[in-house]
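Q: What residues go here?
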């Protein structure tokens, strides 16, 4: 399933595996002035190739190496000879996707990408009519970058910003870096925020600040509860509520408890954790 829409001068490709007529876990790619920002998932390769076939694509930049953002790199490079750029830390994963070590649910929903040979992206990317600043925004992954076009106020945030105030968290994320990256994005005061799921937010300042406030308030509650002697599950119940069903689908890769541990186990945490992970 793929949805194509022109939004404020940007062509958006929002895609997901179709399950009984409904999209499962949406991801997005964006095209502007010959530049493609991310390439979606390989599970959507046929639809993606058809949707982009008439577009001139002179280059690709990946916001990060995750399989739902670089899945069609190899296809574009093999068929059209497109130049691909990404953060230096992403290059080994793009060249050898099996290094990603995808869990079963990720293999089913998005699939392993075809290999692609990418170059390290610089501090800016220029197209015929635009110049995009490349901004380091780690946390979701160490290699994560966002792209900002200041004249139009376009901000392509990849997965640095996830909408809503959900407590579900991935065990691989770094929550302190995520907060810092959100503050970096908020300082840009963008006009349009193009997210990694395909959701576009106009004047996103309030949404970014709300996400920062939610994470910082949750951090304060988690750390205070831990210092009071509460255990992981007690903190999770009192601060964040019930566990989410996605924990069972992903075998714990995503869960509410992971957000508690993210605040406690990270080297940047101001507390020293004595309790082992449950």
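A:
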């Amino acid at each position: 399933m793929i949805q194509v829409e022109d939004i404020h001068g940007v062509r958006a490709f929002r895609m997901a595996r179709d399950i009984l007529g409904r999209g499962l876990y949406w991801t997005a790619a964006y095209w502007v002035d010959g530049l493609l920002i991310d390439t979606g998932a390989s599970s959507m390769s046929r639809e993606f190739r058809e949707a982009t076939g008439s577009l001139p694509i002179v280059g690709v930049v990946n916001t990060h190496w995750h399989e739902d953002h670089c899945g069609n790199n190899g296809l574009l490079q093999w068929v059209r000879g497109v130049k691909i750029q990404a953060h230096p830390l992403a290059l080994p994963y793009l060249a050898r996707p099996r290094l990603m070590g995808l869990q079963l649910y990720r293999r089913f929903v998005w699939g392993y990408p075809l290999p692609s040979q990418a170059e390290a992206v610089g501090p800016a990317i220029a197209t015929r009519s635009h110049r995009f600043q490349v901004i380091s925004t780690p946390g979701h992954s160490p290699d994560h970058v966002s792209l900002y076009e200041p004249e139009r106020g376009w901000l392509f945030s990849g997965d640095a910003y996830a909408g809503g105030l959900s407590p579900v968290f991935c065990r691989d994320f770094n929550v302190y870096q995520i907060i810092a990256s959100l503050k970096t994005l908020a300082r840009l005061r963008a006009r349009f925020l193009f997210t990694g799921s395909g959701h576009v937010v106009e004047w996103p300042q309030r949404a970014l600040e709300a996400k920062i406030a939610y994470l910082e308030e949750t951090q304060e509650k988690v750390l205070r509860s831990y210092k009071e002697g509460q255990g992981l599950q007690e903190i999770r119940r009192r601060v964040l509520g019930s566990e989410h069903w996605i924990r069972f689908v992903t075998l714990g890769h995503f869960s509410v408890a992971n957000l508690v541990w993210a605040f406690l186990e990270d080297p940047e945490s101001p507390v020293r954790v004595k309790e082992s992970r449950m």
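A: Context that may help when evaluating the design: The chain has ten helices and 15 strands. The chain has a mean pLDDT of 93.
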